[in-house]
Amino acid sequence: MTLLLLADPALWAAKVATEAGALGIAAPPPLTDAGDALLRLAGSTPVSHLLVQPDSLGCLRDSLIEMTAGAVDCPARLIVLGDPGNIFAIPGAIHADDAPGWLGRAMGVPAPPDDPVGLDDAELLDALAAGGLRASYQPIVRVGNGQAVGLEALARLRHPQRGMLAPALFVPHAEASGLGWMLFRLLTAIVLRDWNAQAMARLGLPVGLNIAVDDILRPDLPGWLSAQCAAAAMPPSMLVLEMTETQPVQDAAALRMAVGRLGALGFTVMIDDVGPGLRDPAGLLDLDFTGMKIDRLLVNAAVRDVDARRLLVRLLDRARQAGLTTVAEGVEDAATWDHVRALGFDLVQGFHASRPLPAAAVATWHHAWASSRA
Ligand code: G
Ligand code: MN
After folding, report:
1. Which residues have C-beta atoms less than 6 Å from ligand 1?
2. Does 307 map to a domain?
3. Sign of torsion, CA 72 78 84 89?
4. Domain count of the chain?
5. Residue 89 maps to which CATH number?
6. Range of the domain at 133
7. Domain check: are 135 and 33 in the same one?
8. Tens of pLDDT, residues 192-210
9. Which residue puts its alpha carbon closest to atom 18 of ligand 1?
């Protein structure tokens, strides 16, 4: 149980310490501000509960509510201190009462059940119609010096009863029933809007979108993407397509043409989720991809396991020979970071740098991360 306290210490520190003490939990030292809370939630050490006084949330209010709306990006739940009246009601949060024992009661409120059942077409369309599709942005940083060099947009879907859902619960089904291209276009529109409305354009951070092989092969993709970027005043070089080989590539010549065409228009195309399951590393790496992202399971296995490390080193060598930028995914701690740096990776992504963030929180993370490394 790791608690955080974001509230006026004069009002809350002693009360919270008494309640925590009765539960045998260490009293959380008050955070300095909402930015501090955001960084703690974004870090790899899991936080169980964030205790907040609503007026301490400041301009990060929506981001902190979104990050705690479901366990997809971070496990923390929000406990709202003080007056449980309607004015400060935060949807999805736990509102503490003020009778002795309130902390134990608030922490005892069960989380929504983690239902592994995916959405069918009708449920997906309902959630989309309700405006539930959004993107979380996970920073990608240079392993040598920690510089932030980009973001990956990860699809999330807010479900009216089940909270925020991970893509595994709706993307595979959508793709199987022919809704994958629609979902890709909707998410692209959200990312382009976020890129301009939030700080990403100003920070000059390219953003990655996941795309299925079927969609990368579509003849209308390059024109559609170019038009969208032009309308959003986003240079194509700021858009990275991350292609996952979920189906074996049937037509390597067609894929070569498609990747070449996107590259000629200025888009970056990476090969994503590379791991033991990749069917034909040599064949794919001969195409005009600009980078290769190694799956987090392989990255973490390689820390402990000799065979996994051998495979990883072989893939890295091939990628380097092909001139590809290499990204290690799922780097959760300093030891793994050091390991992938020693292996020669260019970039890393994972909880050690940051968990996926709401768009409105990227600038706060970027500023704090840069200052902590200065
Ligand atoms: O398995 P796959 O690579 O598809 O998982 C992607 C998901 O993994 C993302 O939705 C993201 O939330 C999560 N993720 C990102 N970085 C890390 C990390 O460092 N550790 C773990 N366990 N999950 C991560
Ligand atoms: Mn990806």
Report:
1. 73, 138, 154, 166, 295-296, 329-332, 350-351, 356
2. yes
3. negative
4. 2
5. 3.40.50
6. 121-373
7. no
8. 999 999 889 999 999 999 9
9. 330
